Amino acid sequence: xxxxxxxxxxxxxxxxxxxxxxxxxxxxxxxxxxxxxxxxxxxxxxxxxxxxxxxxxxxxxxxxxxxxxxxxxxxxxxxxxxxxxxxxxxxxxxxxxxxxxxxxxxxxxxxxxxxxxxxxxxxxxxxxxxxxxxxxxxxxxxxxxxxxxxxxxxxxxxxxxxxxxxxxxxxxxxxxxxxxxxxxxxxxxxxxxxxxxxxxxxxxxxxxxxxxxxxxxxxxxxxxxxxxxxxxxxxxxxxxxxxxxxxxxxxxxxxxxxxxxxxxxxxxxxxxxxxxxxxxxxxxxxxxxxxxxxxxxxxxxxxxxxxxxxxxxxxxxxxxxxxxxxxxxxxxxxxxxxxxxxxxxxxxxxxxxxxxxxxxxxxxxxxxxxxxxxxxxxxxxxxxxxxxxxxxxxxxxxxxxxxxxxxxxxxxxxxxxxxxxxxxxxxxxxxxxxxxxxxxxxxxxxxxxxxxxxxxxxxxxxxxxxxxxxxxxxxxxxxxxxxxxxxxxxxx
Length: 492
Prior knowledge:
Mean pLDDT: 76
Number of domains: 3
Distance between the termini: 158 Å
CATH architecture of the largest domain: Roll
Strand content: 25-35%
Radius of gyration: 45 Å
CATH class of the largest domain: Alpha Beta
């Protein structure tokens, strides 16, 4: 029994020792079986092809290397083999090339805020403004205009472009000498256009019905501003025709009008004609068929008004003071803010508040004439005492300041210190065409009249090439004048 118990205990100890060994053996066996099965499905990939299979050695046979057992030989890849893919953790250490930045001026943007957003330092911004100043004031940017710029890796401005308008672009570029600025101007094409229309209500609407832009109506009114008051004199059935230059971009986009070369208007049965003429040394102006200037010393009215609310009189009942007193001027009723222009060239002698006249401007003209403009709401920019003003220049805006019951302009005219009626003052004309060019002008005017009166008339039409050639070629006013002087001197 004692031996049996000992044998039984020994067997149990042996069994305890054998059991873990069996488990380890079985685990190793099945693991090896699994690896063998996987290797049969996916054969091992050699990082280098064997010689004679796949890629061949790029070394010539004479320089071949005999591989000894256990030695790994590195075979260079063939020239056609694509380069290995870069490591995903490797980055290109070379700095990126700066790219130009383009944008559009937004409302509220300034050049300073735009350039600071592009990390340009204030000193360079000031340098840019100073360089550009002779060509354009960059402190005045217009929303909607475009710009582009390039700043290099060192933070220096390389170039800057700013669209000033449809024609001009400011270009600033860095050179070895520093920043340099220039103006690029788009070359425009000129087309001579004939326009004609019957006035049904206003000149403004007649021009629009003819297919033209509103600016042309104002230009035509300026030609005859000394003879016709377009606020009150126009009647239904009046008629106009004109020749005008129109400027286009090379791709055919209309940009602006050039001068009206010839114009005719029939107003209340009376016909007025004007022809643009510019001598070689002087400014262009409008003359009638005989070379007499259409310009007068004073315009017929200082604004576009609705009606005359009070005329020139020595006895008028004042609505505020409640008594009769002289009214030695003309009251033009017009909406508040209507532009007021000076009726003739002169010098401002007063621009400020003047008692019952409110905001007041006085202008002295040649020939001892003085004009005054009262009850203004405000003054035009730059209008102050001592400033010279040109006929037709806006000097203020209609208001109701001082002793006034509503928006209007109180306009007065003095001669030699005495008030006179602006509506009855005799017109003083400007100088006619220089006698040396009188005959040349008449031939030029006759040629324009031939073009102005076609056999068939459209509301607006572009004229043929030969007409444009007449205006632009050797027969233009300036060239013709030079040619006439050449012939007179017998040096041609």
